[in-house]
Amino acid sequence: MRTIAFYSPKGGVGKTASAVNIAYLASAGGYSTLLWDLDPQGAASFYLSGGTPHKGKKISKLLEGRAPIKDFIQEGIYPNLDFIPAHKSFRNLDIRLEEDERNLPLKAMLSPLTEDTSLVVLDCPPGQSRLTEQVLKVADVIYVPLVPTWLSLNSWQQFNEFVREKKLGQKKLRPFFTLADRRKKIHRELLAQNAELFDKPSKAIIPCSSAVERMGEKGLPLELLSPRSQPAISYRQLWSEIQAELRI
Ligand SMILES: Nc1ncnc2c1ncn2[C@@H]1O[C@H](COP(=O)(O)OP(=O)(O)OP(=O)(O)O)[C@@H](O)[C@H]1O
Ligand SMILES: [Mg+2]
Counting CB atoms within 10 angstroms of each CB, which of 151, 172, 203, 208 has the fewest? Predict the structure, then answer.
C-alpha cells in the first residue's frame, strides 16, 4: 500500500480537486484506491457525490481504536474507489492527536488496510498543525499545489524550510502549479521558471479552468465530466508522474 497526500498550508489552491481527480484516475487504472477526506469542510464529497454529499462518521471511535477503519469506509463510490467522507468531528482531529496519547496516530489507523488497498489518497485541510506532521510522516509523497504567484512561492519556501528544520521529510515534497492563468504576466513568468524554482519540478501544470469549477456543481471527477479538457489532460500527466514516482 502506498500513501500520497495533497497538502498546502494555503487554502483554496486546488488540494481537493487534485486529490479527487488523482484518486479517480488511480481507481480507473485498476488500483484499489481509498480517498480519505481529512478536512471537516467535506469538499471532496461534493466532487464525488453526483449531487448528494456522502455522510461521514464521528472520528472518536477510530482514533481510540474502538472501531476499525473499515467501518468508516464507503465502498465502491466508483469501481476500485472507496471513500472516507469527512465529518464535522474532524475539526477536533488536531487537538485529539495532540492531547491524548491513547489516540492512534494516522499510521496506525491506516495499517489494517495494507492488504486490500493499493493507494491511499489523503485530502488535507489547509493550515499547519499536528495533523500536518502526521500526514508528512505517513505519506510516501506529498503533492503541494501552488498558484503561480510570489506570495504562494513565499509560503512554499517557508513550509519547505519548516519541513527541513523539523526533519519531516523534505525530499517527499512535490510542488506543482495549479490554477495557472497564462493571461496573467506573473503566472507566465513563474511557469517559465518552473525548472529553476524546484528540485523536482512537475511538468503537469493544472490550468485555471471552468471545467474544474463545474466538478462541484455536477459532483463528478473531470475524467467523467470533461475528459478532453485541458485540466483533465494535465491531471492525467500528474497521475503518470505519480505512478513513476511510486513505481506502481
Ligand atoms: N484548476 C482550477 N481551475 C479553476 N478553478 C479551480 C481549479 N482548481 C480548483 N478550483 C476551484 O477553486 C476552489 C478551491 O479548490 P479546492 O477546493 O480544490 O481547493 P483546496 O485547496 O482544497 O481548498 P481548501 O483549502 O478550502 O480545502 C474551488 O471552487 C474549485 O472549484
Ligand atoms: Mg480542500
Answer: 151
